[in-house]
Amino acid sequence: MTDEHTRDHRSQVKDAFPEIADIEAETLREQVIEAWCLGLERGGWIDIEDIPYAWNIHEVTNVEHVRGVTRIAVLSAQEQRDFHGADPDFDVIRAACLLHDVGKCYEYVDFVDDDVLSTPDPEYATAEVPHSLSGYALAHEVGCPLAVRRAIPHFIGEIPTRTLEAELVKSANSASSNAITQATMGISLQEWVEKYSQTS
């Protein structure tokens, strides 16, 4: 992909996810952007807004879902802090939420029209690897801390140590997903998983 696409991806990521600016650590902000740019480039995506929420739900974009998860998790973390006295790491929560579905850049290339893609890299772009695993790998590749990486595998539960931040990402993902499946298909997330999931 050209340098022009790479520059465009960077601006697309920053525009799509204004929540990145709320991450206090500059290095972590850059890592989130870099992971998305790598995923978009290798997946061959021309526009970040063309990645669907799910392989069979195209009415909602992945961007909308990721932003919803981030917003839900941050509000929940604020309640955990203010009401319960917990001490969640907001940078970890924001970064992990923003990256929890970056792996869809690889997984969903076979479920969209060819005209929204340039040239997907076959080494990465495949539905063979669940997006939570490829998202973990992208976060690792760009140097995200373990606390962020362990909060990304949200669906299959591949990481045995579940932190407060990881549980927030997982529950916020379920909350957003339930809203999306109900609004678009009239079913719960569990019903969607039982009927359509490719990883269960």
UniProtKB/TrEMBL annotation:
Coiled coil: none annotated. This is HDIG domain-containing protein. Pfam families: HD (PF01966). The lineage of its organism: Archaea, Methanobacteriati, Methanobacteriota, Stenosarchaea group, Halobacteria. Residues 58-188 form the HD/PDEase domain. It comes from Halogeometricum borinquense. SMART domains: HDc. Transmembrane segments: none annotated. InterPro entries: HD/PDEase_dom, HD_domain, HDIG_dom. It comes from the Archaea.
